[in-house]
Amino acid sequence: MRVGIGYDVHAFGPGDHVVLGGxxxxxxxxxxxxxDGDVLLHALCDALLxxxxxxxxxxxxxxxxxxxxxxxxRKFLRHCATLLTEHHWRLVNAxxxxxxxxxxxxxxxxxxxxxxxxxxDCDEQRINVKATTHEGLGSLGRSEGLAAQAIxxxxxxxxxxxxx
Length: 164
Known about the structure:
The protein is of the alpha+beta class and about 160 residues long.
């Protein structure tokens, strides 16, 4: 078994929505990022890549590569799913926390879980998405941006369930 931890943070900027867990959520501001700025999926990808010993999201999708400008982060997650299969790992579970004063995620949580489970080809019960605030403290508490952290547990895939 292997454990991986991921973290990502992005500042708010111009725009009218944020993308979290692949879900477009209306918001008074957007995210400053090279891709779609989905901190939830970026943290999850880093956790998966770390658990597999395959570096980080920046090595696989460099932010100075124009191919990834505005990219849908679900593409990054599907790449990680392919690597899981190729390297004979399966996801036991993933636990992801979004840290932000806003937007509220309750109404979007199940769609996020569904997208993540679909992209990782696993049961939704293996995916947990939660949110917390920063209680008004620091840059996140002042609503200057949002962050996410993720932890995953991987196990070796047996021959009959490889990649699941």
